[in-house]
Design brief:
There is one protein chain. By secondary structure, the protein is mostly helical. The protein is built from three helices and no strands. It has helices at 2-11, 25-37, 40-54. The relative contact order is 0.07.
Length: 93
């Protein structure tokens, strides 16, 4: 079941698309949800982090970059103070 869960997590596919060689998808999903509810995944992650940290594999430096700032779609091309409005296109026909 772990291989089925790992395959699904790695590919991002729906549960029903798990290859048949891993067994029934419903069983894999049930095991995944049971481990999720009882905190098994959190314990596994904590144990892996502790082992990697003790071995010096992890680098805990963090870099935060906030150079991407999104504006509202109507913010582009807004009139500035003191600028005249753009002339309207008129159909001369």
């Amino acid at each position: 079941m772990f291989n089925a869960i790992w395959w699904r997590s790695r590919t991002g596919s729906p549960w029903r698309d798990i290859p048949e060689r891993y067994g029934p998808w419903a069983t894999a999903y049930a095991v995944f949800r049971r481990w999720q509810r009882d905190g098994a995944w959190a314990r596994i992650l904590a144990a892996l982090n502790a082992t990697a940290n003790a071995d010096g594999i992890l680098d805990w430096e963090v870099s935060i970059d906030s150079t991407v700032c999104r504006a509202h779609q109507h913010a582009a091309g807004a009139r500035k103070k003191g600028q005249p409005a753009r002339p309207q296109c008129r159909n001369r026909w």
